[in-house]
Amino acid sequence: MKYAQFTTIEEYNAVNIAIAEWKDQQTNGEYSRTDTSYEYTPEPEAINNNYYMPAKPEQVEAGLFYGVVLLDATPEEEQPTMEWLKIDIQNWLTEHSIAFTLSMSKTELLELIP
């Protein structure tokens, strides 16, 4: 399976809605009877400032991912390193709900990353 990469949430959700509509056509309206507007969550977490969704072969063949970058796998989220600024490491930890104290050194902050 391939994965579609989107640079904006708007692009992601446009295809997300198109997939739901396509599935509704394929099931003669059964899909919409489940009150489903989106195939995938409309609020995905970004990985390295991009959004990803599975691109199933039948959906690719139907043209639902026309003009979209398709990858063999989603990239791993970039994790902080010693090269990062301390404030950027703290922001990353906050985004991932990892507790820290402001007095911690960069080394101590990096040790908190699972």
Write a structural description.
This protein has 114 residues and is of the alpha+beta class. The protein folds into two domains: 2-71, no CATH class; 79-114, no CATH class. 34% of the residues lie in helices and 11% in strands. The protein has four helices and three strands; from the N terminus they run βαβαβαα. The protein has a three-stranded antiparallel β-sheet. The two termini are 28 Å apart. The mean pLDDT is 90.
What sequence of helices (H) and strands (E) makes up the elements?
EHEHEHH
Main sheet strand line-up:
2-1-3
Question: What's the mean pLDDT score?
Answer: 90
Shape: elongated
> How is the main sheet built?
3 strands, antiparallel
Q: Report, as a whole number of angstroms, the end-to-end distance.
A: 28 Å
Number of DSSP helical runs = 4
Global Rg: 19 Å
Q: How many individual β-strands?
A: 3
Count of structural domains: 2
Low-confidence stretches: none
Distinctive features:
single chain; 114 residues; alpha+beta; 2 domains; 3-stranded antiparallel β-sheet
Which helices and strands, and how do they pair?
Layout: E1 2-6, H1 9-26, E2 51-55, H2 57-61, E3 69-71, H3 86-95, H4 106-111
Antiparallel strand pairs: 1-2, 1-3
Q: What can be said about this structure in brief?
A:
By secondary structure, the protein is of the alpha+beta class.
